[in-house]
Amino acid sequence: MSAQSTAPAPASVVVVGAGPHAKVIVALLASAGVKVEACYDDVQARIGTSLLGAPVRGPIASVLDARLPAILAVGDNAARERLADALGERGLAFATAVHPTAFVHESVTIGPGSVIFAGAVVQPDARIGAHVIVNTSASVDHDCVLEDFVHLAPGVHLAGTVTVERGAFLGVGTVAIPGRRIGARAVCGAGAVVVRDVAAGAKAVGVPARALARVKED
Question: Where would you tag: which of 130, 160, 200, 216 has the fewest CB atoms within 10 A of its CB?
Fold first, then answer.
């Protein structure tokens, strides 16, 4: 995983993206007292508009002009990873944001660019990588590991010592019992109950979750 950080969010940031996921990112930052100076998006129709009061100033390529740390407001894991690689190589720094109603134990480590939404719970000694999304009311119990670019949808519940590998997506309400491993870029469908490990690139659905197909990797 990328280098970990527990540094607080800066006073001002920019947001990369101005679509639906960006709306909840902007709302999270406002609740945390972080000013969003601007959003950047490559959809021409969004440029010149505003998102919850934050101006959408220009295309993503111009985000470096702001000289502020950024949060990538892109829900798709593969797209978020591509942006992080491209913009990081050009020197963009990434901020971390935690909603004030989330509980995150002081022993938790969180990588740059990650966001933890309202009502989420992250218990002792969990490790969260870079550009991870822990969405509304998700819970991550003790000693879990979320590798870079993981996305937990709202209401996901991970018991202790679960490992979610790089780029995996867990749909709304996914549950994993203690000690399970969900492989890189795997997808767990909404409401899946993971009682066995999920292979890398697999799609698992149902109760208990069963792998249905392979997910094509980039």
Answer: 216
